[in-house]
Amino acid sequence: MKLTVLFLIAAGCLASTALYAETTVFINGNIYTGNMKAPHAEALASKDGRIIFVGSNADARKFQNGDARVIDLEGKTVVPGLTDSHCHIFGIGEREMNLNLEGANTLEDFLAKVKERVTKTERGKWITGRGWIETFWQPPQFPTRGDLDKIAPDNPVFLTRADGHAAIVNSAALKIASIDKNTANPFGGEILKDKQTGEPTGMLLDHAQELVAKNIPQPTDTEREEAFLLGVKREIDLGWCEIQNAGSELADVERIRHSFEAGKVKLRVYNAVYAPGPGATALLHDGMTLNGYEHRFTQRTLKVVFDGALGSRGAALLEPYADAPETSGYLTQKESELQPIFEEALRQGIQVETHAIGDRANRIILDLYERAMKSVPPEKRKIREPRWRVEHAQILSAQDLPRFAKLGVIASMQPSHAISDLFFAPSRLGKDRLAGAYAWQSLLKSGAIVAGGSDAPVERGEPMIEFYAAVARKSVKGFSADGWHPEQAVAREQALKMFTLGSAFAAFEEQEKGSIEVGKLADLTVLSKDIMKIPEPEILTTTCAMTVVGGEIVFERK
Ligand SMILES: [Zn+2]
Which of 52, 124, 193, 359 is the most exposed place for a label (fewest CB within 10 A)? Predict the structure, then answer.
């Protein structure tokens, strides 16, 4: 508690993003409270940012006096404010600002979008974009620099795959970065080369992307802040009340704080900084920020990226890829560098979250967590229960799955990955390994806490797609791959919990958020349909009618 007060003052939060003081009474709602003792209600009231009443329309009348604001929900469904426990807020904004290659369903489609951008761009200027996924194309093969050279001979081009773990570049970009057939792979990355000629194909995986990316002019402060604010707006309009930003560089932390100080942000942001790196050093040195800007900004987490992604075969597997036996992926950080950081984090009560997709990355990160916890026992920690997280926890071997519950490690998972990856994961992994892939139900049954997120802009980042994916475990068109373990789908109550109480727990916020109860922050997501009852496909046509953060209506669909 002392910590909280200290940081409230340190963050200077009292100057801006004021509490919403007005008494607001929401009536005629179909309210799912998430509170087991009273799971359903018709009405609620809020004041000074918090819930002061939950109950029936009749009992709500005593709050409807004086200048109280009354909102008639007209029977709409209300759930506790949804939290995206894993997304990349700047990337979401940038997707709107740059060339957005989402939905390019063929190679021709993809090239046409790039070509259109080339015609509008000055000769010699960089063209950057994101969002392509080749697994939907026929044949499902990576694009090549030759494809891009034909349409962009005079502009360097850098186009990030949707997952952010690979990029395709053209010859002009390779030339600027001085990459040729003799360039060696950097640690934790791969320059794909033609099997016959040995020349680079233009595909750069993980850390190899940086060889080219470092030559691209950096966005200005203003552009970067614009990206953040665009991202914030999109999230609020979709019904997210909080996002947990899965990693940021030091400069972006300043931009986030700056936007909050200017009173421009209503969304709650739980921010992680990349480790190792200057952001991590600063967090370990300066300590955490808790509940800054009227409970809207918390920073207490280090984010480590430990392997690549499955789509680009960078995820670190215990056995080789089924469709590329020459590789089993790679780790992107050295264990020896992480160990001292982890121990220091434990001593200081700093949370650690680690991206681990492959079963090898998951096993090793659990080993590292376990080792750190042994060498810094509870009495030597600032916070006894560290609530460390594994982000994605995508492919787990049977022996590692129970370790999450045992070690108190949270599985932070994104249901949409399962319904995007079902088109290629079976060929990458083979049938046997699918048993421990996207294993939400097994993790829940083992007693682990599962927090739900979207990983936007890797995925679309829409709460209804995530909720649908968790309960249906089928593509948005209703398709499920052979051997895709339908039993890993979750019940609607479990899915809702993943995006409310689960995410809140993963952020030490379950006393403040995650359910609609008196005393908690008044965060609500109001939906056009009853997602707890409608047929599964209808979940996808459900929209956010209203987003309420701290009792204030911050979005309303007109
Ligand atoms: Zn991510």
Answer: 124
